[in-house]
Write a structure and sequence with these properties.
single chain; about 450 residues; mainly alpha; 434 Repressor (Amino-terminal Domain); Serine Threonine Protein Phosphatase 5, Tetratricopeptide repeat; 23 helices; about 75% helix; elongated; DNA-binding
Length: about 450
């Protein structure tokens, strides 16, 4: 509960309730207080003690908190129950319905001056925005949630900080996303605030940006810490999210069976929690693992399952990302025309500010398909567009590979100097992965 209202507000509330109940000041005051005291209190000229408010609440037939703050006695509990319901609605992928629920909850929490409940509703709206790909709106919701919790301990602010970081990551701003996550991890660990759920959320969220930046060693380190923290977490959804993120690191290290096992654990947890969108993401990552292992038929099956689940719930940005992965598998299976059609459709929903890394992947694959068809100019155009997107995002690993593709194309068409420039660009981004764009690793928690 927050602080009580000002004396004048409490006085007017006491007077209103007394009149509604047909009591005189003398009847309300007896047997402990005097009518003069009640008159002074109703005029707002005295700050009533807790003892006086309890006496008055008992005589007026209301709860102490309702008299002190104006909030109905069950309001906070009911808001928490409804917040849980909204979280469940979002968890099963019904983002639009969840937005409606969270919006109503936010209005009530604001009307009654409940900052923690306001922050919870804003966090929910932010997660809904991430689900539907509205990244700017999502970031603004997370910023507002963080502002509501300005006086709260850092672990309580971590979900909002992590939400901001994910919004920046999905927008292609990898370095800033990593900065937000690492600086928060550092502050928690250096301050001795070793909250397992908060740290697990941050470390698991950092793996994706690390991988896209080519900082594989830093990603592996984050994965190890996340795995060590998992047994301490009481949040199965958080543990499931961690398993899904860790799988990317295992994959980069060539530990394919372990990656698949980690994703299977995540899928089991999500299935039990009925988290449809996260379960779809597990199918997505399993499809990615199968594709890297050459099991293209299994990869296609998993990715189509993910796409069907995400599209049914209108998770537009995630759907676009899965479509790019599916197109790559289709191309490798010989269905290049179907792959190209999927990519052209999906590019309309991606941009430098919204899914930059996957927009670049779409252009890269379209370039490969064009090159296979001997449409050299078209292939070069797609490669250059992809380079621009990846340079902006700081995705070093993908950028180095793309520079190789462009360099090979330029060399085959006789432009040797331009090819050398492309190769040099790629080599520059492969120098000491992670060290050219990241500072020292954050302090680690005691494990």
């Amino acid at each position: 509960m927050g602080e009580r209202d000002e004396p004048g507000t409490i006085g007017r509330r006491v007077q209103q309730l007394r009149v509604e109940r047909g009591l005189t000041q003398k009847q309300l005051a007896e047997p402990v207080y005097t009518p003069a005291y009640i008159s002074t209190l109703e005029a707002g000229r005295v700050r009533p003690s807790d003892e006086a408010l309890r006496h008055l609440a008992d005589r007026l037939g209301v709860a102490f908190d309702e008299l002190a703050t104006g909030r109905p006695a069950r309001l906070v509990t009911e808001l928490h129950l409804r917040l849980t319901g909204a979280q469940r609605t979002l968890a099963v992928g019904e983002a639009e319905a969840a937005v409606e629920q969270y919006t109503g909850l936010l209005a009530e929490a604001e009307a009654h001056g409940l900052p923690e409940e306001q922050a919870a509703a804003l966090l929910g709206l932010g997660e809904c925005a991430l689900e539907t790909g509205e990244l700017v709106e999502g970031r603004q919701y997370f910023e507002r949630a963080e502002a509501r919790l300005a006086e709260a301990p850092l672990p309580a602010r971590v979900p909002a900080l992590r939400g901001r970081a994910v919004a920046h990551y999905l927008a292609g701003e990898l370095r800033y996303a990593v900065y937000l996550l690492e600086s928060t991890i550092d502050e928690l660990n250096r301050g001795g605030l070793h909250d397992p759920d908060a740290l697990l959320l941050l470390y698991a969220s950092a793996i994706g940006p690390y991988m896209d930046m080519g900082a594989h060693a830093r990603a592996a380190q984050a994965a190890e810490v996340a795995l060590a923290l998992a047994p301490q977490s009481g949040d199965p959804a958080l543990v499931a999210r961690m398993h899904r993120s860790v799988a990317r690191t295992l994959l980069a290290e060539g530990r394919l069976a372990e990656a698949d096992a980690s994703l299977a654990k995540a899928a089991e947890l999500y299935r039990g929690l009925q988290l449809r969108t996260e379960l779809a993401n597990c199918h997505w990552m399993r499809g990615y693992v199968y594709a890297q292992n050459g099991r293209l038929e299994s990869a296609e099956r998993e990715l189509r399952e993910a796409l069907e689940m995400l599209s049914a719930k209108r998770a537009s940005l995630y759907s676009s990302q899965v479509t790019v992965e599916l197109a790559d598998v289709l191309h490798r299976r010989g269905s290049s025309q179907e792959a190209a059609d999927l990519l052209r459709d999906v590019l309309g929903g991606l941009s430098p500010e919204r899914g930059a890394v996957h927009a670049a992947a779409a252009h890269r694959l379209l370039g490969i398909i064009a090159e296979d068809a001997r449409r050299t100019e078209q292939a070069e155009e797609h490669y250059v567009r992809a380079m621009s997107l990846l340079e902006r995002a700081g995705a070093a690993g993908d950028l180095a590979d793309l520079c190789r593709l462009l360099g090979d194309l330029l060399r085959r068409t006789g432009r040797v100097e331009a090819a050398l420039d492309a190769y040099r660009t790629g080599l520059g981004h492969r120098t000491a992965p992670g060290t050219t764009t990241l500072g020292p690793a954050p302090a680690q928690p005691p494990l």
